[in-house]
Amino acid sequence: MSFKPADWPRRLRSQEWFGGTGRDQIYHRGWMKNQGLPHDLFDGRPVIGILNTWSELTPCNAHLRDLAERVKHGIYEAGGLPVEVPVFSASESSFRPTAMMFRNLASLAVEEAMRGQPMDGVVLLVGCDKTTPSLLMGAASTDMPSIVVTGGPMLNGYFRGERVGSGTHLWKFSEAVKAGEMTADDFLEAEGSMSRSPGSCNTMGTASSMASMAEALGMALSGNAAIPAVDSRRRVMAQISGRRIFQMVKDDLKPSDVMTKQAFENAIRTNGAIGGSTNAVVHLLAIAGRVGVDLTLDDWDRCGRDVATIVDLMPSGKYLMEEFFYAGGLPVVLKRLGEAGLLHKDALTVSGEPIWEQVCDAMNHNEQVILPVEKALTQQGGIAVLRGNLAPKGAVIKPSAASPHLLKHRGRAVVFEDIDDYKARINDDALDVDETCVLVLKNCGPKGYPGMAEVGNMGLPPKILKKGITDMVRISDARMSGTAYGTVILHTSPEAATGGPLAVVRSGDMIDLAVAARRLHLDISDAELAERLSGWTAPAGQSDSGYAWLHQTHVQGADTGADLDFLRGCRGAAVGRDSH
Questions:
Q1: Which residues of the chain have pLDDT under 70?
Q2: Using an 8 Å Cβ cutoff, are 370 and 407 in contact?
Q3: Is pTM, for the whole model, over 0.85?
């Protein structure tokens, strides 16, 4: 940790708008005063933007207006001027074709909101899956003092005495209906138990994983990730984060000071320990690209493969985020990593202190939820990166959520050319498939869907489910929800829509999977593969206007984070020219 606080007092960038007696400064101050702001609030104190992803069509974030008020209290208490700014909110549950398509658009909108307006620092008020990475990406690009406050997970769901995990039980119940083990009426009754309070998913899905990533990166205060949305301590966290951003602006503590290569390695190991979402892979790669850190899939495999999964949460385990918080939350996990020599203890956090100082006294209050290492769900958790002729640039699998007996498997491919082909044929009893087969889904990557939707955890054919089989090997260039489970290989790169080898897999081909050896192989000769690729033609359907065109034209592969090619590695919060 080599950070040195900046001198204070000094002139801040907001004074380009508000500081002085010229026409332009009077213009800017005068308009702000129509909200009833006293003149002395423009005396050079930090102006803090509260970037709020509240939206009633983003249910996970629908309570963030209340948290924004708590952040304002903290900023005012510290002596700053808070300004709440609504920013693009990409809802996982509402956006079509997929929220992931709009993560980069949201990050660009946030970046320009920060660049073009009088802010000296920002609070990133986030929650739903894509809002956390998109705001972190925007903040990384501007490199303005920033702190993350997440909305927190919802309370546990319960249905007839059974814990119901967000998403996880949706997939489970849906498959049970197809297998004839649950009635449609029971499924409808269970719906009311799934989301019974404000907040994001109560499983270790992508929202909870990314909240944990923000904390492990050092971009949120210690303990932020797991506090339930409706717990009063969530509001306390918001208020003290408001106080803290004021000091960060005075010190000029920026994302580039916090999000170093060591911080990203801490986050990767944390994701393995918590059984976090595969979506964290594309998001951390994208964030790293924005802040200028060289992070690759090889780093994910190197840092994560020997990390034990010690958090017993769905979808890998049986508990939910509420129990994780009561057990001590992420600080306990970080302490365990530190004790095992798997944490860069001196990595700086937004608190101004090294991460180890924040967690070294954490206590585990429930060893059934946060397990001793010798009782880990799996001794090699994390994300496994597979390579081979089917995935020259890599594919990922989450071993802790997979079936152990399928981690080494050879099977016959049953191929679906796109998601519509899958939907049209998967329920047909005439489909030539058995439980030893490998389901292959094409054209669902960043360019192909477009947007790389969460369809990789393909539901199994009903005739397989009726045999009592609940898992098969599945391969695609898509993503899957962090709440999902199964032996699912994702993010296969290059994707099918750009002519990657996945594009030329045929039904009947044999595929070899060996997770321990990190191998994914299409069992045909190099000559046959080359011949197939030479005859490949791109699928129709390229967008010709709007953001969809921009996305499909400029989006990169999943192996580098699926960011837009013109947004990586350019930092700096420039002040725009005044036009008045």
A1: 1, 568-580
A2: no
A3: yes
pLDDT for residue 574: 61
Cβ(334)–Cβ(216) under 8 Å?
Answer: yes
How do strand 473-476 and strand 488-493 relate by DSSP bridges?
parallel
Structure tokens of 546? 């709007």
Report how far residue 207's alpha carbon sits from residue 269's, in angstroms, rounded to the nearest whole number.
17
- Nearest by Cα to 498 from 569, 413, 559: 559
Spatial CA neighbour of 539 closest among 367, 417, 409: 417
Handedness of CA 465, 471, 473, 475 (dihedral sign): positive
Calpha distance 221→531 (Å, rounded)? 54
Sequence-distant (≥ 6) Cβ neighbours of residue 269 within 8 angstroms: 303, 304, 307, 337, 342, 343, 382
Q: CB atoms < 10 A from the CB of 262, how many?
A: 18
Q: In angstroms, rounded to a whole number, what is the distance separating the alpha carbons of residues 146 and 570?
A: 17
> Quick one: which H or E segment has residue 510?
strand 510-514
pLDDT given at position 539 = 84
The Cα–Cα gap between 330 and 96 comes to 32
Helix (H) or strand (E) holding 391: strand 391-397
The pLDDT value given to residue 266: 98
Structure tokens at 329: 């939350």
Report the C-alpha gap between 173 and 184 in whole angstroms: 9
Rounded to whole angstroms, how far apart are CA atoms 263 and 349?
9
Nearest C-alpha neighbor of 235 from the set 71, 57, 425: 71
How far is the CA of 57 from the CAs of 19, 104, 209, 386, 455, in angstroms? Answer: 38, 19, 21, 36, 21
Q: How far apart are CA 245 and CA 498, in angstroms?
A: 43
